[in-house]
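ingest -> validate -> predict -> emit
validate: passed (alphabet ok, no gaps, 265 aa)
predict: started
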Amino acid sequence: MNGYDVAERMPRLIALTRSVSPAMADCELTHLPRVPIEVDRAAKQHAAYEQALETLGCTVHRLASPADMPDGVFIEDTAVVLDDIAVITRPGAASRRPETTSVAAALRRYRSLYHVEAPGTLDGGDVLRVGRSLYLGVSGRTNNDGAKQLEHLLAPMGYTVKCSSVRGCLHLKSAASVLDGEEVLLNPALVDAAIFERLKWIEVSPEEPFSANVLCIGRKVLCPASAPRTRERLRENGYDVLAVDLSEVAKAEGGLTCCSLVFGV
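emit:
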């Protein structure tokens, strides 16, 4: 959930998170080399991230990440939460599929649930929502069958799904994030910008190619601490920017949106 006017549309926001697993060093990796992860430091950074969510008006509900869920902190990939329903995904990495059970249990109190079925795969990190339009990245984790299932499920509810392949990154949200209203932050080198032709977009600083993953609520944006030039571009466009350090999480190919499911109740 990005780009909402909190005061008018979302009087109460829930941020569903999951703790850093003690086995995070065994996470799945696709585009980055494996380097040591300081799990204790990652946990402290994640706690600061949750505090930042609270400053944006969210009530944080945290689930546990046991040792058999090394990627569990990346809770965004397990569900797509819309105004009226939640779609429980089928992650592209088979090791991550057990994560969805506890997320479904947590979401059931807030939404009616639907599920992506085999052979479809879908990671929530590949889905951007702008109003009733969903932009979906076909990636190494989301296949065409998963995209078609999402499209067929949501069409009767008035949603449209627009697909694009991504390159050189894990998810669509590694290449683009939704800002306020009909505006996105993106790196056009990682995704075909034509998919966003109806939207206004801000390009990340060329020196910070992986800084497009930000979390926006209203005009407030959580942005990577490692991306000062991109933060300045956002400020120049009228956004209130807060830097968040998730450097240890980044070693596991994670970003700011990956670590929460934010939705209104």
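The radius of gyration is 17 Å.
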